[in-house]
DNA sequence: ATATATTGATTTGATTATCGAATTAATAAT
DNA sequence: ATTATTAATTCGATAATCAAATCAATATAT
């Protein structure tokens, strides 16, 4: 087997492990996987527009809106309109949302950190440099090419009946039913 | 920023790139992402039991059954009972299923292969060794630890109304409605 | 400035994913 | 023979996901 094949296998293992990790964490925290990823993205960035969140988690705006509403209902995210451009809606993490991310049992991450920390300094640089190289190889395609690699699994969103807060989302026609 | 943080960032980039790749490919082939992963897993292995598929794609048996049924309806997978242990159902890829995987536009993979191939031999070994090390660090946790890393997105399954073939799935009670 | 196009987000409607719990059948253990 | 375990399916409920239609705000063109 050539080294490229081995590279793919290693990538799949990595993807699968992180996927398993994400699912466990989601379950532990009582969120779904897409909700967890969304909250994570917002929490990392402090505040993002809905569109930015969608790009970060790689889902459509429709889906993202729905996930965000779910998290808002749970009190983990807040939304408000951008004042300078009223088309935009800014999403930010609540205290509870940040706390949830902070307190989440990051088992995989801890383990990785511990083990990575156990490596000699030179080896750390070595591993890091290689990973960054791989990321670059893949990233270039990112914007415009794509497909396959992943052997792990994937995800989804949710309900929408009750609250689309943000004051009144479309102020101009408040509650008109079409 | 310490090198561990950079490691996480690199991993996220890798995960995101492969996620985007998988989604594009799924779309190109007219499958959903979980369907693609499932078909891929079965096609790689030639034949697997439903439980093995579930483990490979990291979903529950219930979900896996449903996805497999969808692929069966599309004529991409076949099912049949294991003769030596009739609890087991063996899933295998049809010609159409294999062809779909074969013919799939593996843009990301091609690009990665090309670029990886462009590296000097010593550098290939270097990158590969590092990736395998990371995979090991994560894998150990795999079975029993977990959480977070993934910044990409995830996936799902399908309908179940019409055909659950496999001759008659439960021969003993053929078509009784409970 | 008015009409036209573009952008950002939401809603709607339809499909698929996903899981837990209950069920069914087959095999294994006592 | 009972009893337990294992493998897969079904059912019911919820969440995810997207495309298309809609709505409002901003940008661009005429």
The CATH level-2 architecture of chain A is identified as Orthogonal Bundle
Multimerization state: homodimer
- Mean pLDDT of chain A, to the nearest integer, reads 80
Radius of gyration of CA atoms of chain A, rounded to a whole number: 19 Å
Please report the two chains with the greatest interface, counting residues with C-beta closer than 8 angstroms to the partner's C-beta: A-B, 73 and 73 residues
For the record, the CATH class of chain A is Mainly Alpha
The total strand number of chain A stands at 3
- Total DSSP helices of chain A: 7
Give the N-terminus to C-terminus distance of chain A in angstroms.
62 Å
Biggest sheet record of chain A: 3 strands, antiparallel
Relative strand content of chain A: 5-15%
Which structural class do you get from the secondary structure elements of chain A?
mainly alpha
Morphology call of chain A: globular
N-to-C order of helices and strands of chain A: HHEHHEEHHH
Q: What's the CATH superfamily of chain A, by name?
A: Winged helix-like DNA-binding domain superfamily/Winged helix DNA-binding domain
Instruction: Give the total of domains of chain A.
Output: 1
Widest β-sheet, arrangement of strands of chain A: 1-3-2
Instruction: Work out the helicity level of chain A.
Output: 55-70%
């Amino acid at each position: 087997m050539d080294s490229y094949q081995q590279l793919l296998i290693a990538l799949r293992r990595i993807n699968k492990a992180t996927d398993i990790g994400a699912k466990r964490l989601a379950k532990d925290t009582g969120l779904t996987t897409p909700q967890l990823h969304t909250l994570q993205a917002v929490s990392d960035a402090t505040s993002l527009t809905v569109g930015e969140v969608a790009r970060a988690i790689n889902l459509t705006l429709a889906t993202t809106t729905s996930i965000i509403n779910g998290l808002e209902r749970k009190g983990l995210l807040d939304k408000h309109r951008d004042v300078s451009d009223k088309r935009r809606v800014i999403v930010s993490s609540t205290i509870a949302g940040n706390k949830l991310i902070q307190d989440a049992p990051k088992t995989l991450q801890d383990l990785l950190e511990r083990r990575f920390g156990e490596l000699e300094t030179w080896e750390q640089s070595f591993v890091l440099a290689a990973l960054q190289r791989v990321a670059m190889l893949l990233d270039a395609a990112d914007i415009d090419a794509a497909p396959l690699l992943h052997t792990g699994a994937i995800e989804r969103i949710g309900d929408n009946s009750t609250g689309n807060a943000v004051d009144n989302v479309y102020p101009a026609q408040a509650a008109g039913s079409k």
